[in-house]
Amino acid sequence: MIQDFRIITDEASSHPLFIQIVEQVKQAVANNRLQPGERLPTVRQLAQSLGVNPGTVARAYLTLEQEKIVVSHRGGGTKVADQSNNPAIAKRHWNHLSNIVNGHILEALSLGYTPEELEAVFSLHLARWREERKEGKHSIEIETQDSSRIENEIVIEASHDLALELLINKLKAACPEMKIQLNHSGSLGGLVALQKGRADLAGIHLLDEETGEYNYPYLKHLLPSRKMAVVHLAYRVQGLILAKNNPKRIRSLEDLRRREVTLINRQTGSGTRVLLDFELHKLGIEPSKVNGYEHEVNTHIAVALGVSRGEADVGLGIQAAAESNGLDFLPLLKERYDLVIPKEKYKSMAMAALLKIIKSADFKEVVANIGGYDTSQTGSTTFV
Q1: Which of 79, 81, 77 is nearest to 90 (CA)?
Q2: Are 349 and 222 members of one domain?
Q3: Are residues 243 and 154 in the same domain?
Q4: Which of 77, 169, 204, 324 is most buried as measured by Cβ atoms within 10 A of its Cβ?
Q5: 249 pLDDT exceeds 90?
Q6: Could you tell me if residue 178 is left (phi over 0), alpha (psi between -120 and 50 degrees) or otherwise beta?
Q7: To 10 degrees, the CA torsion angle through 224, 229, 230, 231?
Q8: What angle do CA 108, 114, 117 make, to 5 degrees?
């Protein structure tokens, strides 16, 4: 039986106690804190630990079993259900999910929201849940070389971006036979992967300290002899992601001088890390003096989650990540995010499908609805 999962009830809540138990078990399953096959406390054990009537726990377990979240066997206890082994259970699970999603879509549409707004919000929350489920796991390094690539495969090394994730999801839906691998290796990591032939596409947002220009100076320096297509994905707002109501009263990057302010940082090589280092240099702030500077994560969503959990007071990231977690956001600047594709790859059928989506009005509208994005030049292409 699991030891680290705890249920907490609140008698002052407007939700019945059995519903509180149901929702906490569901959330633990969604976050992978409860794994398939793990046994829950018995009705009597949980009732005693919570100080509630055993009938309340029994009702909660029955509700969870009806929704296929758990399975109960006489003498075998109550366990988290495994949906993958039984095709009949998997089909019922899929139909149940479809009905849930369809019901919420109909409700939202009836309230006047557009399909594009729904897709934007859904993408934001899905990205947050994916980050929570990863639990800090890093992407696997790619060993595949150009010589072994197939036509319907795209390997992407990129700095994390929610619009890019949306693009990939739409590409998977349009071309289910296509194999797409995305690794959040950072902007510099993406260019190095292109340089070494380990990727077909890089997603970058790199500010050049000398010129103040985004991306192009890095292409000239790291890929001087390669012909590249630079496809503009979007402009996006970068700023300070702050705890709700900003309890530390953080007003600018200058506040990183304060020892009581803790930062959560992006990984070395990411465009956001390059931007932060550039801004700290302008302010004369030594990185080693910033509390939490060495605390690195690989995505904007991970930064926002760190702030929302109280692991840090502030992080540099995009507006959409802050909004998806209900956090405060202090905008600092608008930056350019581009997709860099070798010219020979740009002409492939796989890239043609991807580029068709980028240039579509539907994609641009959904990205604009995510929040903190400007799609006025999305899809424009320059060859360098």
Answers
A1: 81
A2: yes
A3: yes
A4: 204
A5: yes
A6: beta
A7: -170
A8: 90
